[in-house]
Amino acid sequence: MELVWLIAYLILGVVTGLMAGLFGIGGGGIMVPVLTVMFTAQQFPAEHTVHIALATSMAAIVPTAIASMRAHNKRQAVLWPVVWTITPGILVGTFGATFLASYLSAAPLAIFFSCFMAFVAFQMIANKKPAPSRELPGKVGLTGAGTGIGIVSALVAIGGGSLTVPFLSWCNVRIQTAIGTSAAIGLPIALSGALGYLINGWGVAGLPELTLGYIYWPAVIAMSVMSFIFAPLGASLAHRLPVAVLKKLFAVLLIGLSVQMLAVLFF
Question: According to the UniProt entry, where is the signal peptide (predicted)?
Fold first, then answer.
């Protein structure tokens, strides 16, 4: 691996860590489109470029989620009963969806990723306030929500924050607590997703050296080191910024990512 790519992965890890801590998104929404560009420039096999980006992102989210979760937990911003209840559905949905993603070509994955991100962004910009009486659902409802979040997360290799944060906010959970809880939920999503992509990419011919399954480990290690360091700083900012500012920044981030992913694949 050339030095320029190592530096690029380290910088991406810094940005990912900050955004993960700030928005509780795990960082996959940032990593997938950027890694797709990098892997294309390094002439990775075109038919597997997005798959490798998805898998590598999932693996790198694991340490990022741990750092972000710890930072938010110190501020008592994690609803642990919600985390324990929603996790089984997330594990099933995430792991199962990796099998579907592995058989899809790059274009459908890119389109799904972009449309999903744009939809969530515009929902947050609209800022529709939930009914004051709305609360978190029971165990069955949370398990069902977890399954849906897990499926989408595996298909677009995100830590689940772009779904979990709006969902919890819709249930009248304070935005900072929603972000902290989302950071904790991102860990089982990343673990299950990374395992699924590793299994589905096992034995695939023509993958780059130092790739295990679809996971490209040089990028994972470089990004993980920096994201683990910078995620706590992002978490600190999340508890200092006003709610309205957080929501607008979150929406702008998602719109930019959706446009970028489409540009990478089609222009």
Answer: none
